[in-house]
Amino acid sequence: MSLFSFRTRSAERDDATDQRRFDRLTRLLDELTDEISVEKSGLERRYASVSADAAFLDEAIENEEASSRSKGREAELTSSILACERRLGVLSRQNSVIEELRRTLAELIKKIG
User: Fold this and answer.
1) DSSP label of 72
2) What tens digit of pLDDT does each residue of 9-60 get?
3) Which of 18, 21, 75, 79 is deepest in the core (most CB within 10 A)?
4) Cβ partners under 8 Å of residue 46, min gap 6
């Protein structure tokens, strides 16, 4: 075997392979963005509802219009609100990472293309 027998594929074939790969990656990033968006929307709706419930309950407790069990319910609502805020933060960070990946992919495509 000769040292100089190494052959490469055509540039067109490499370009087509790269384009298919970049297209798949773009679709995957789109899917992930959609998943995060759906989860975030549902979470924001529940967050608004729980926050309103907590505000009404807090007001009722302050006005001594609520039962003694209401303090426990208020603690549950507060815990739910805090968990929701943490999850929204995680989703926001995931979106940031995906956007950074999109920018990196666009730069890569420019350099190669």
Assistant:
1) H
2) 888 898 899 999 999 999 999 999 999 999 999 999 999 999 998 998 888 8
3) 18
4) 84
Nearest to 44, CA basis, from 93, 109, 89, 97: 89
Residue corresponding to tokens 């990033």: 29
- Beta-carbon contacts of 64 under 8 Å, excluding residues fewer than 6 positions away, are none
Alpha helices in 1-69 (DSSP H): 11-62
Q: What are phi and psi of 67, to 5 degrees?
A: -75, 170
Of 54, 45, 24, 44, the closest CA to residue 92 belongs to: 44
Rounded distance between C-alpha atoms, residue 25 and residue 105, angstroms: 9
Residue with tokens 């995680």: 90
pTM to 2 decimal places: 0.80
Write the pLDDT tens digit of every residue in 59-96.
888 888 888 788 889 999 999 999 999 999 999 999 99
Write down the residue that tokens 């933060």 correspond to.
89
